[in-house]
Design goal:
- The complex is a heterotrimer.
- By secondary structure, chain A is mainly beta.
- Chain A is built from two helices and seven strands; from the N terminus they run E-H-E-E-E-H-E-E-E.
- The longest helix of chain A has 9 residues.
- Chain A is globular.
- By secondary structure, chain B is an alpha+beta fold.
- In chain B, the strands form two sheets. Chain B has a four-stranded mixed β-sheet with strand order 3-2-8-7, with no helix packed on it. Chain B has a three-stranded antiparallel β-sheet with strand order 4-5-6.
- Helices cover 79% and strands 0% of the residues of chain C.
- Chain C contains 17 helices and no strands.
- Chain C is globular.
- The chains are: A mainly beta, B alpha+beta, C mainly alpha.
- Strand 1 of chain A pairs antiparallel with strand 4 of chain B.
Chain lengths: 103, 126, 409
């Protein structure tokens, strides 16, 4: 089992299977998973957007909404599509065009 | 507690221990990664090198130098299992005792070696 | 019913504190310089600074009452620790400089009263201030010296007795360009704004709202006391300016000592005026010393999540208590070393003005964030005021240092 710090993931550039840049990780959405031995929070989705400056300021709703306002692409990527085998070089398991977008 | 946005709702949030005392902020979160499973939010990190690194390299070097000079062996980081979280609102309440945390070392040291020797240290609303 | 009485008496107290707590060494020194060199012409700058402060204090109070967090808390939480470090360092520097100047102000008042050098008074003043913080509660600190600061009304009396041309004063509330010495005019204008809009003021105000456990019921109370308190306080600053314009400007006096500044009250009010000046300087600077020292502690404690409250015993918040202890001692030593409080004040005010973008611009984000403010986000008027202030702060940032060089004198 590997561990990664959240702040080392946030702001990282995500690439697709063809090596194209998808954007930068802005936010991680987590939900409760129920277990017999105790509930825990697991990450279900990654918010990725195409504005490098704002992740370094730590994401806020303002940052996420700015992307929309500026017409930049944003993606909400389910955990299954995110390959974190090398957490410092996150990749999605599909091509850019196949990614779901909230817009 | 419903779904969480880790950066927006948790990172940098104020931490309260089981006595509702302030014990620092969420300086970092550790995610446990396992193939075929969603990343698990495993540990809250408080203080020490984690905080210094997030600020920037010069601060990290300075604080490391300070720790070396004062001969502090530990990295000053408190690790709180995420399972200890009781409530997340505008603060994060955890079921631990702040007195046990490494990141509270300076607070305890100052209290024991400086503050309580000054008259009036216990005057105020408890 | 009891809750309403408490709320509105809180408002009345806030109003009194706003009036009594407005003047301090920065506003006295800069308003006097403005009046001595340019007559009443710079009254509009005092008005702009006052309105700016009223807007920012209303917002920082509303922010705390609604979100249950202080401005510093939200700076850290919404912008992250890396960004937060910038306003933290800058506000710390300007606050510590201001703290040294205020300790110098109290010490100067004692020097004028006793003839003993201010360098000897700095440590005793620091000790008394420290003891009040160590043993007192927030209410005592906030209200104690602010109530006594009402003595500053002497400036209003002095201004009235000097019979200025009130229509000229009214006309001077409209922005104007200088008839002479533009660099010096704008330099003093910048320092007046820096004296009015100091970040420690709204850090203190939003922390105070949490200390007093404000909730959304206090939003209207906050608005009233922030606006009225600062408006009356700003009126006192204009009174200082008028006194200097009537007494010092005709003599082309160089404002390089507090003895000169004292003439602005001694002339209209005689010997009593001199004592009123000493009392005003001493009391208002003492109040500011307490506020700034606490603000330094609030800034550090809230930014790093330490235990904090002026109401708690020091043993329950050791780092918070040691922060103001160390600050007061260190800045008192600056005065013991012989730094001139008046010179330090004018430089500090300009540096403060230059630092404003880092504290004002984030307010624009926070006051419009529905996660933080829920139904109490800014309306368009408040946003327009804040945008105007943000632009002003950006301009000040650019011009402050060049003006210090060109117009500092």
């Amino acid at each position: 089992m590997r561990e990664v710090r959240l702040d080392r993931l946030v702001g990282r550039t995500v690439h697709d299977v063809d090596g194209r840049s998808v954007g930068h990780i802005h936010e991680l959405h987590a939900e409760i998973e129920l277990h017999e031995h105790g509930n825990e929070y697991v990450v279900v989705a990654f918010h990725v957007g195409r504005l490098a400056l704002l992740p370094s300021m730590a994401a806020s709703r303002f940052a996420w909404q700015s992307l929309r306002f500026l017409g930049r692409r944003r993606y909400i990527i389910p955990w299954q599509l995110m390959d974190l085998s090398d957490p410092l070089q996150p990749r999605v398991r599909c091509a850019l065009e196949e990614l779901p977008s909230p817009d | 507690m419903r779904g969480l946005h880790l950066v927006h709702d948790v990172q940098d949030a104020q931490l309260l221990d089981r006595h509702h005392d302030k014990i620092g902020r969420v300086d970092g979160l550790l995610l446990a990664l396992e193939d075929g499973r969603p990343p698990r939010v495993a540990t809250i990190l408080v203080g020490g090198r984690v905080r210094d690194e997030r600020i920037g390299a010069p601060v990290r070097w300075f604080m490391q130098l300070l720790r070396t000079l004062v001969d502090v062996k530990s990295d000053g980081i408190s690790r709180i299992p995420f399972s200890a979280v009781r409530e997340i609102s505008h603060v994060v309440e955890v079921d631990v005792d702040g007195a046990d945390l490494a990141s509270q070392h300076v607070e305890r040291w100052l209290c024991d070696h400086v503050v309580r020797h000054i008259p009036g240290a216990y005057i105020g609303r408890q | 019913m009891a809750g309403n009485v408490k709320k509105w008496s809180n408002a009345a107290l806030g109003l009194v504190c706003g009036i009594g707590g407005f003047l301090e060494i920065g506003s006295i020194a800069t308003a006097t310089q403005a009046g001595a060199e340019f007559g009443v012409q710079l009254a509009w700058v005092v008005a702009v600074g006052t309105i700016g402060l009223a807007v920012l204090m209303e917002m920082s109070g509303r922010l705390a009452a609604v979100s249950k967090r202080t401005y510093t808390d939200l700076l850290r939480e919404r912008f992250g620790i890396r960004f937060f470090t910038a306003p933290l360092v800058v506000v710390l520097i300007v606050s510590l400089l201001a703290l040294a100047a205020e300790i110098g102000g109290v010490s100067t008042a004692l020097q004028m009263a006793t003839g003993v050098s201010l360098r000897w008074w700095a440590l005793p003043v620091a000790f008394v201030a420290w003891m009040l913080l160590w043993r007192g509660t927030f209410t005592v600190v906030e209200q104690g010296s602010a109530i006594f600061g009402i003595v500053a009304i002497a400036f209003a009396v002095g201004a009235w007795k000097l019979h200025p041309q009130w229509n000229e004063v009214g006309a001077a509330l409209v922005p104007s360009r200088p008839a002479h010495d533009a660099a010096r005019y704008w330099y003093i204008a910048v320092s007046v704004v820096g004296a009015s809009v100091s970040p420690y003021l709204f850090i203190f105000h939003s922390s105070g709202a949490i200390e007093d456990a404000w909730d959304t019921e206090y939003v209207s109370v906050n608005r009233l006391s922030a606006v009225l308190g600062n408006l009356f306080g700003g009126g006192l600053s204009i009174a200082v300016l008028i006194c200097a314009a009537m007494v010092l400007a005709p003599k082309h006096a160089n404002v390089d000592s507090f003895d000169i500044i004292a003439q602005t009250l001694a002339t209209p009010l005689g010997r009593a005026g001199l004592w009123f000046f000493i009392a005003t300087l001493g009391i208002t600077c003492f109040g500011a010393t307490l506020e700034i020292a606490l603000s330094v502690s609030y800034l550090l404690a809230q930014g790093f999540g330490w235990s904090w409250s002026e109401n708690l015993p020091p043993a329950r918040n050791a780092r918070f208590s040691m922060a103001y202890t160390v600050s007061i001692l260190a800045m008192a030593l600056v005065m013991v070393a012989g730094i001139d409080p008046l010179k330090l004040t004018t430089v500090t005010m300009v540096v403060t003005a230059a630092s404003l973008p880092l504290t004002i611009i984030p307010m624009l984000v926070l006051m419009n964030d529905t996660d933080v403010m829920s139904a109490y986000t800014n309306g368009w008027v408040a946003n327009a005021a804040l945008v105007a202030l943000s632009i002003l702060s950006a301009v000040l940032f650019v011009v402050a240092v060049p003006l210090q060089i060109l117009g500092g004198g």
